[in-house]
């Protein structure tokens, strides 16, 4: 019986472990027959441009920081963003802002540089 290649790294060395298929090279696990194509959430900035992990964005509106008297000013550049796929509260960007620290932003308040 021939097992399918890994859907993530295309390794041919997959093996069965109960009802799961496992790739020893990238440690990806999936069920046979399960759709292996993951849906990607498309996250767009305030101008409708697609965002990706590692992009640099600029804040387009003054943003008050909850629980603090600090404000993220318009024009603040945020480097190396990380997109969140499970943004149940609307904050779909994880980042670090110089002088402020780690925080989450909504993509509707940033534009891609």
From TrEMBL:
<feature type="domain" description="Protein YjdM N-terminal">
    <location>
        <begin position="2"/>
        <end position="30"/>
    </location>
</feature>
<dbReference type="Pfam" id="PF08274">
    <property type="entry name" value="Zn_Ribbon_YjdM"/>
</dbReference>
<dbReference type="InterPro" id="IPR013988">
    <property type="entry name" value="YjdM_C"/>
</dbReference>
<comment type="similarity">
    <text>Belongs to the YjdM family.</text>
</comment>
<dbReference type="InterPro" id="IPR013987">
    <property type="entry name" value="YjdM_N"/>
</dbReference>
<dbReference type="InterPro" id="IPR004624">
    <property type="entry name" value="YjdM"/>
</dbReference>
<dbReference type="Pfam" id="PF03831">
    <property type="entry name" value="YjdM"/>
</dbReference>
<protein>
    <submittedName>
        <fullName>Alkylphosphonate utilization protein</fullName>
    </submittedName>
</protein>
<feature type="domain" description="Protein YjdM C-terminal">
    <location>
        <begin position="43"/>
        <end position="113"/>
    </location>
</feature>
